[in-house]
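Task card 7
Instruction: Convert sequence to structure tokens.
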Amino acid sequence: MTKFHDTQPIWEGSFDCLAPFIRLKMFQNRLFQRQIGCALQFGRLEARSHFSRSSLLLNELKKKDQVESPEELAKTSHMKAEPLDFTNHAPIKAAKGKVYPKSKYESKSYQLPKWKEALGELVIRTFKLDMDKVRAGPVAGFYYYSLCKEQALQYEGEELSETAKFFYEDLKLPRTFSQWFQITLLHEWILFVRMRAMPFKYGRNYQQKLVDRTFADIEMRLFEEMNVNSGRIADQYLKDFNTQMRGAIFAYDEGFFTDDATLATAVWRNLFSGRKNIDMVHLEAVVRYIRSQLYVLSRLSDRDFAMGNFKFVPPNESVSVLTPEQEAQIKERVAEKYKAMDADPNTLPSNRSKLSYTN
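Output:
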């Protein structure tokens, strides 16, 4: 098996040589933002002039504060387009049920035999293992990767999940392996943003475990599902996916730290592959989806997130901003829960954590 995922972490190293490239990309992004503004203005004028039905819909939407959810917003699109299919209707040969070779020890529902549990707790207590580091493997490497992967996972002859329908049917994205990777990567970047807010040594560990599992899984799927029989070809695919990951993370980070227009540009270049017949409503729906996930993550404490107490908000659900009173109540309940856990002498060493529950 190729040890591609043992390479240097994606957030380390010097990128001085990329400075001209980054400046060029930033200039192209600013140019595309102006094009987005012009397109939106032209679209409004065209709708008022030629589409009375669209005007009625816009008037109805103005009566509301906002569209209920990203999915509902995407469905307001009036572009007559079918979901793209670059495979010429080739069957999707996904290995049914293989999200990843699951270990029973990584399952939240699995209970160790009592003697194994006692031995493990003794080892943790004796050697004073840092469970916040140990926990990164099963939480980030398995649970969070499974969440990201399943958002756009598809099986031959089976109905798509609600989240997959949002990406493939509402947003008209092609059902290809490369597109699945881009959707998975988008969700991984959302988690990266929260992981960076953790203490550095823990956040970095969580990110690396997630990246390692991603490329290990892609390598397995290339051989088992995509019928790649050459190690050299598989290595080239892995290098291409690694390059896509680095570029997408740079682009999404720039959008996250600037404005929604820049973020929409990054979404257009990566998730929509920079295609020309893009609907601005679809871009807005994805940006709303991203901002909703990031808002929920920003309200999670480090300990809650590190314990795996997060799920992506489905695209057919909306996220409302908490009032200061609601936020204070939630923080109070979380603090009470973990204070009691830390004070309880019967709490197992494997369930203890040094991470904050008040941030």
